[in-house]
Write a structure and sequence with these properties.
With 231 residues, this protein is an alpha/beta fold. It has 2 domains: 160 residues, HAD superfamily/HAD-like (Rossmann fold, 3-Layer(aba) Sandwich), CATH 3.40.50.1000; 67 residues, DNA polymerase, domain 1 (Orthogonal Bundle). Helices cover 48% and strands 12% of the residues. It is built from 11 helices and 8 strands. Strands 5-4-1-6-7-8 form a 6-stranded parallel sheet, sandwiched between helices. Helix 2 crosses helix 5 and helix 4 packs across helix 5. The longest helix has 16 residues. It is globular, with a radius of gyration of 18 Å. The N terminus is likely disordered.
C-alpha cells in the first residue's frame, strides 16, 4: 500500500518549473519603464508610465508599436528597430539597480535539485544574460528562452512550449510562475499549470479572472509553492 502511495505521488509531481523574469523573480518595473521612456522620448513619443507598465510581458517591439499607435505616430519598422536597440542599451547601462524579490533565491534553491527549471522572458537576450551573470543565477536554469528566440509574444504559448521542448518535458508536466495576465493566458494555452504572483503590474483581482491554478502573495510563500510543485 505504501509503495502504491509513493508511486502515485511520484506520478503527480511536476517535472519542470518555468519562471517569468520581470515582475515575477525580479523587481524590474521601474527599470523597464525608464528604458522604454528613454527610447520613446528620443523619438518625440510621449506616453505615460502606466501605459508601458501594463504592457510589460508582450515584448519590446509590440510595446513600442502600441506606444507609437497610441501617440498617433507613424509605424516604421526601421524606427522600431532603432527604438528597441535604444531600449536595450538603456537597460544594459543600469542593471545594477535590479533586485530580486524576497524569497526568489530560496524558491530557486529549493527546487533546483528536484525539478528542471527554465526562464521564459519577453525581455531581450543581451539584458537577461547580463542580469543572470551579475546575480549568479545561470546555474539555476537548464534552459533560458527570451523574446529573441520566439516569433509570437505572450499571450501566445510559444515561449512556454519552446521551454518544454528544450527541457524534454511534456507541457502537462510543467508549472509556470507568472505575474501578468499575458503570462497566465499563455500558460493555459500551453496546457501547463500556473502559479500567479501579484507582484507586477496587475492586481490580485485581475489575476484571479485568468483562473490560475494557485495564487501566492509573494515568493516568500516558499512552502505553498513547493507543496504545489512537488506533490
Amino acid at each position: 500500500m505504501l509503495l502504491g502511495l509513493r508511486r502515485r505521488i511520484i506520478l503527480e509531481m511536476f517535472d519542470a518549473v518555468i519562471f517569468d523574469w520581470d515582475g515575477t523573480l525580479a523587481d524590474t518595473h521601474s527599470f523597464v519603464v525608464n528604458s522604454f521612456q528613454k527610447a520613446l522620448i528620443s523619438f518625440g513619443c510621449k506616453i505615460d508610465d502606466e501605459f508601458i507598465k501594463r504592457r510589460i510581458g508582450i515584448g519590446a517591439r509590440n510595446t513600442i508599436k502600441e506606444a507609437l499607435q497610441a501617440a498617433n505616430m507613424p509605424l516604421d519598422e526601421s524606427v522600431i528597430d532603432q527604438l528597441v536597440e535604444q531600449k536595450i542599451e538603456a537597460q544594459m547601462e543600469q542593471t545594477e539597480v535590479i533586485s530580486l524579490f524576497e524569497g526568489a533565491y530560496e524558491v530557486l534553491s529549493s527546487l533546483k535539485a528536484k525539478v528542471k527549471m527554465a526562464l521564459a522572458t519577453m525581455n531581450n537576450r543581451a539584458v537577461i544574460d547580463k542580469l543572470l551573470a551579475e546575480r549568479g543565477l545561470k546555474p539555476y536554469f537548464n534552459v533560458v528562452i527570451t523574446v529573441d528566440e520566439v516569433v509570437q509574444p505572450k499571450p501566445d504559448p510559444e515561449i512556454f512550449l519552446k521551454c518544454a521542448i528544450n527541457l524534454r518535458c511534456h507541457p502537462r508536466n510543467c508549472v509556470v510562475l507568472e505575474d501578468s495576465v499575458y503570462g497566465i493566458e499563455a500558460a493555459k494555452k500551453a496546457k501547463m499549470k500556473c502559479i500567479a504572483i501579484p507582484t507586477g503590474a496587475f492586481t490580485l483581482t485581475e489575476l484571479e479572472r485568468q483562473k490560475p491554478d494557485l495564487i501566492v502573495t509573494s515568493l516568500r510563500k516558499t512552502e505553498e509553492i513547493l507543496n504545489f510543485v512537488l506533490c
